Each structure stands twice: as C-alpha cells, then as structure tokens.
Amino acid sequence: xxxxxxxxxxxxxxxxxxxxxxxxxxxxxxxxxxxxxxxxxxxxxxxxxxxxxxxxxxxxxxxxxxxxxxxxxxxxxxxxxxxxxxxxxxxxxxxxxxxxxxxxxxxxxxxxxxxxxxxxxxxxxxxxxxxxxxxxxxxxxxxxxxxxxxxxxxxxxxxxxxxxxxxxxxxxxxxxxxxxxxxxxxxxxxxxxxxxxxxxxxxxxxxxxxxxxxxxxxxxxxxxxxxxxxxxxxxxxxxxxxxxxxxxxxxxxxxxxxxxxxxxxxxxxxxxxxxxxxxxxxxxxxxxxxxxxxxxxxxxxxxxxxxxxxxxxxxxxxxxxxxxxxxxxxxxxxxxxxxxx
Amino acid sequence: xxxxxxxxxxxxxxxxxxxxxxxxxxxxxxxxxxxxxxxxxxxxxxxxxxxxxxxxxxxxxxxxxxxxxxxxxxxxxxxxxxxxxxxxxxxxxxxxxxxxxxxxxxxxxxxxxxxxxxxxxxxxxxxxx
Lengths: 341, 129
What we know:
With 341 residues, chain A is mostly helical.
C-alpha cells in the first residue's frame, strides 16, 4: 500500500509539475479519439472523413478551451448528417440546441460528459459513466449523462437509417425527418438507459455523501447493482435486447475504474477514524474525522564531504575530491484528517 | 518583514480570485432579486427558443397533413392549445431556473462572506506588522 501511495504522490507531483504539457496532450488524445470514432461510425462526408482533418482539429482542440472538443464533435456529426440529408442535420441541430439552451447554460463544466458518454457507448463500456459521475459530480450530472445517451441514440438512429435515407428522393424531406425522429422517440432502449443511468448517478451521489465507513465503496457497488437491475427490468418490460454479459462485464469494469478514482480522490484510513464531540455557545458538534492515507515525500539528503574546487581567485578551497551521498528516507504515514461530517 | 502567514493567506485568496471567486464575484455584484430576475429573463428567452424549435419540428414532422388540415381546423383553439403548452414550458423552466439561481446566489454570498473575512484578517496582519 505504501508503494501505491508513493506512486500516487509521485504521479500527482509529476502532473502538477508538467500540467502545462500534460493537459494539451490529454485534450489532443480525447479530441483525436472522439473525432476518429465519429468518422468511423458515420463517415458520410468524405472531406471530413480524413485523418489529416481529424489531426488538425485535434491539434486545435489541444490548445483551445475544453468546450471546443464538444464544438468540434458536434460540428463533425452535423457535417456527416448534412452529407446524408439536410433534414437529418436539422434534427441534429435542434437536439444540440435544445441541450445547450435548456441545460448547459446552467452547467457548462458538465458538457464534456456529453462527449464522453457517447464515446464510451461506442466503445461498449457506457456503464463507467454513471458510477464515475455519481462519485465525482452532483445530481445534476445525471442530466449530462442522459444528454450523452440521447446523443448516442441520435447518432445510432442516423447510422441505422442511413441506407433507407440514401434511397429516398429529395422530395421526401418530411419522410426523412420522420424516420429519424421516430427512431429517436420510440426507442425504448434509450428510455431504459436514461432511467438506469440517471438513477445510478443520483444513488451513487447520495450514498457517497453519507457519513458511513467505506461510503465510496458502498456507493459504487450499490450503483453498479442498481444499474444492472434497472437495465434487466427494462429489458424484461420493453424487450430492449441489452446484452446481459456485456452489462455485467461493463459494470465490473465500472467498479474497477471507480476504485482507481477512489484511490486518487478519497483514500482514507477508516481504522483510524475518530468521533469527537464538543460544543460552543451556539452548537453541539458531533464530528467524525477520518485520516487520509498519505506518505511523506521521500527526502534527499545531500551531504558534502569536501567542498567543490572553484577557480582560483574566488575563494580558497581545500584540495581533494568530492563525495556526495544521497540518503532516501521513507516517511511514516501522516495523519491528514478529512472531515466527513 | 516577510510574514509566512500573510503570504499563505494572500496565495489562497489569489487562487480563489482566479478560480471560483471570479464566478461568485460576478454574482455578488447583484442584489438577490436583480440577479434572479435577470437569470429568469434569460431562461424565458431560452425556453421560448426551445419551444419554437420543438414546435417547428412538430409542424415539419407531418407537414403535408398539417397543410391539408389547416383550412379545416379551428385555428383559435389550435393557437390556444399551443400557447397553453408554451406557458407550461416557460413556467416550469422558469421555476426550475428560480430554484437553481436562488441556490447559486446563496452559495456565492456565503463564499464571498468568507473571502471578505479573510480580507479583514489580512488587513489586521498588515496592521500588526
């Protein structure tokens, strides 16, 4: 455990030291993968379906604000929809505008979730998102995750009906629009996913905020089980054909990812938790203090046996060599208290 | 003389001003009612635009049927129904916005109160030094 804690501290230190370089690289990779997946799934506009274009867009995203990844992703999907049919692009614009006008005006920071959720859906591991957002976000994150699910099913509706749309004439404008709108509105699988993910986010959030030991672990396990149960019940009621094995494996993966996040964000030692009670003029306080698991940073001790020989004229140094000893001292676990309540 | 306590406090405050404080100070410039009123006006505008978009899709969804029926239907009743739905949309979204904005304002005020307390503390530290 000490080695892991040391590694975590080293990673944190490395990140804080090189944040200027790491953040653009992460943004570049995220944008690059997102745009590649969009092109791979849709790819109707040949001018956009080009690695060079994706590379340029991803490079631009790396130094622009994070919100630009969402803009580029939306732009790419709209261009592909436009290449398929203008009416489909209109539906896409309306869906994106509705999300922007009604929700992201209030929670602009959560908008990255709308990119990550469809991306994970395409990678067949969407179950990570509700558990992680329940741990890191707020109940409002449920709306962001649901918006991401809607975007995924919109893209799926477009790709599933692309062949039919291509056979239609230019005069069948309303029929094309109807096809996509119906595919989106009558999608029971989307409804089940939206309900399951929204409930999971809220339940994970509520449990992890509770003042019980191992609240984060309980929250993630309960969230994963709830997610699975709602998906199965939804499957039974609406016959959504959700892969049971995929859902179980996906939720197990979600638990693993959540555990890693817990290690970085909420690593506490419950065995050393203390409950104290005190009062002032106005209140009684019942405080539970749980110490964080930390290790002191290893210190390097440089011991100079002989001073370095300098050019003559500056100061006189004794003749002889130079010997440097580097000692490494592992620290004892420190008590850095995390107040829970 | 360099005071470690003063430097730590100033660093914390500078970090606050750079990050969450920026957002809260913007909110803190308004009186509560003014802030909420401005935000609700924005919400009404957004809800109107959203409703117009959904209505446009609704009309375009069955455009041929709509054009055939437009001469037969009771236009006043249709307009009343549309306006009722519009009213419900705006009222529900406005009420939601009111809740969010009131919560945000209270949180911003609490946070700024703490910031001003730190400013006073800093001032006192300067007076001591």
